[in-house]
Amino acid sequence: MKRWALFIPFIIFSLLGFLLWRGLYLDPKDIPSALVDKPFPDFALPTLVSGETKTKSSLQGDVHLVNVWGTWCISCKVEHPFLVELAKEGVRIIGVNYKDENDAARQWLIDLGNPYVFSVDDEAGTLSMDLGVTGAPETFFVDANGVVRYKHQGPITRGNWAPLEKIWQSLVTESKQAVQP
Amino acid sequence: MMKYVVLFSALLLSQLSYAIVDGHEYIFDDGSEVENENRAQLFQTLAQELRCPKCQNQNLSDSNAMIAGDLRRELYQQVKSGQDGESIVNFMVNRYGEFVLYRPKVNGMTYVLWFGPVALLIIGLICLIVIVRKRKQSVQPAEPLSEAQQKRIDQLLAKDKGDDHV
Q: How far is A66 from chain B (nearest CA, A)?
């Protein structure tokens, strides 16, 4: 047998070792959303504050963040102040109040501020199931055509907004370009 | 206790079937006896083969995460109303991605997963055969005996024969 062939087991070991080592630093919770690049699911739900029924058509024409939240969710409380800031900066956020008590949710918006254009009341969790939500908070980036373009799991904060802002900006630019010609 | 008595008598009297998942009984009574039995089995199978999207290493029947409870209910409704397994699996995959399948579909992305172990086994076997064959070929035939050795053997044999007569 040739000398170099003796190194084959070592090379295989090194490759496997490298793969496993990489695996240590991957986030197993980072699951690609099945919904990315698919149209936002249809829904017809009452809003939390006015009770008026909203459908998917209210998402069309503008870029939106769709934020799934609940008063029972601790991380939602963490991200809430930043959502209020974003709303002031002109980011249109639509809330999906996920399996929550309406009174508690309304009180939350009064106490902590309301960053949402409107929040739909998804008490049964049907819209959230169609969205593939596994917990709150989750935020979907929906383009002006009502197509989901990105999904963020976990709270959005000042710290992790920078890369997300790029996605938001690119969607906004895209929607403006679509209008101009 | 009463619950089980009622359940048991109901089982004897009617055509319903039931599955027990995570300590709850799920009753299937919308179809014929055979259909109900099949649905109960399908429910049991899917509750074990579908993965809870929130928790990493539990299936729907094991997990007590909120989402797993919701999905069990959804699964139950769909199975009870007579949906077939494939459309239910598609429903889940469309929402939660391939991640929810403990038994992933066979496609371009999962070939390595499905056939990798078999391929490795075959490669291993081939290596083994090649090595064994090479070894066999490389074994040298024994060197012919020298004259002195041959003489000694003859002497010993002759001596041996002598002993036989004793």
A: 16
Pairing of β A93-98 and β A64-69 = parallel
Rounded CA gap, B19 and B27, in Å? 7
Q: In this predicted model, what pLDDT tens digit does every residue of A108-124 receive, in sequence order?
A: 999 999 999 999 999 98
Gap between the Cα atoms of A85 and A88, Å rounded: 5
Nearest to A129 among B74, B93, B98 (CB): B74
Q: Using an 8 Å CB-CB cutoff, list chain B residues near A130.
A: 95
What CA–CA distance (Å, rounded) separates A78 from A57? Answer: 30
Contacts of B53 in chain A (CB under 8 A): 31, 132, 134
Query: What pTM value is reported for the model?
Result: 0.74
Q: How many CA atoms lie within 13 A of B58 on its CB side?
A: 14
How many Å lie between the alpha carbon of A181 and the closest alpha carbon of chain B? 34
Give the model confidence (pLDDT) of A71-127 as tens digits.
999 999 999 999 999 999 999 999 999 999 999 999 999 999 999 999 999 998 889
Secondary element (H or E) of residue A150: strand A148-153
Structure tokens at B10: 């109901």
What digits encode the pLDDT tens for the residues B21-65? 777 788 888 878 888 888 989 999 999 999 988 887 888 888 888
Determine the straight-line distance between the first and last CA of chain B, rounded to whole angstroms: 93
Interface of B with A in 33-72 (CB under 8 A): 53-54, 56, 65-67, 70-71
Round to whole Å and give the CA distance between A120 and A95. Answer: 6
Beta-carbon contacts of A133 under 8 Å, excluding residues fewer than 6 positions away, are A68, A96, A98, A125, B67
Among residues A55, A36, A47, which one has the least CA distance to residue A131? A36
